[in-house]
Amino acid sequence: MTETEHVDATRTQSAYKEAMQSRGEEIANAVTHGIGFLFSCTISTTLLVAFASLHGNAYNIVSVSVFGASLMLLYATSCLYHALPPGTTIKHVFRVLDHISIYTLIAGSYTALTLTHLRGPLGWTLFGAEWGLALAGIVFKSVFQFRYATVATFGYLVMGWMVIFAIKPMLQFDGLYWLVIGGLAYTGGVPFFLMDEKRPYFHAIWHVFVMAGSMAHWIMVLLFCTSSGMNTECTSTA
After folding, report:
1. What is the pTM of this model?
2. Among its keywords, does the record have Cell membrane (predicted)?
3. Which long-range contacts (CB under 8 A, 24 or more apart) does 20-27 make?
4. Structural domains in the chain plus CATH codes
5. Least crowded by CB within 10 Å, which of 85, 180, 201, 224?
């Protein structure tokens, strides 16, 4: 099969998946992440940057800004993808962007931690690994799009749980509870994501899990990553 045939086949599969979602389901999908976008671009990011500007330093401001931007990107692309009419080229493009934004949100969430609480060798290594994997995921998704979906999902999970490599210093982190809650929420939604073609409104349920996970991580960032006074609590030197 030529590359052109691969692209055509991928778009056909994408259109088929879009057709599997009823109008009501797509409305639910767009509304759920539309709410997430409104929150992330108003109260969420504004509050994080304001608190970091008042109580933090450049690391805090940059890290929460990256986290907030990654939140806005994910919810904006997801909402627009589900709101667009099925079978169109623009909807296919936004579906690719929707999946790509998952990589950037995971890396953005780790940025908030690694630039504030883990700025030792381990923290910078984790920071580089997350963004390296995010870049690899973006290239992978751009090239293969919706082929090898299991590989892409596995990549999300690996990126999300890389914190286990920093578990020793993270045990000192007061926000670990919110970090784990968010990770469990994202992971708990994966079965609904994988089965959304077989059960009605499973994709909207997946969206709710994503919103719960991002809310938990937002609380963690607000409470523990906006003040420079907390930045050295979990610094790892080994």
Report:
1. 0.85
2. yes
3. 20/197, 21/82, 21/86, 21/196, 21/203, 22/200, 25/200, 25/201, 25/203, 25/204, 26/82, 26/83, 26/86
4. 22-230 (1.20.1070)
5. 85
* pLDDT, tens only, 93-110: 999 999 999 999 999 999
On whether the CB atoms of residues 75 and 117 are closer than 8 A, the answer is no
What percent of the chain stands above pLDDT 70?
88
**207 is known to lie in a ligand binding site:** yes
Contacts 24+ apart (CB under 8 A), 213-217: 213/182, 213/183, 213/184, 213/185, 213/186, 213/189, 214/36, 214/40, 214/71, 214/74, 214/105, 214/182, 215/182, 216/178, 216/179, 216/181, 216/182, 216/185, 217/67, 217/109, 217/112, 217/178, 217/179, 217/182
* 92 marked as binding residue: no
**Cα 146 to Cα 166: distance, rounded to the nearest angstrom:** 32
Confidence label for 234 from pLDDT (cuts 50, 70 and 90)? low
CA-CA-CA-CA torsion sign (24, 27, 33, 35) = negative
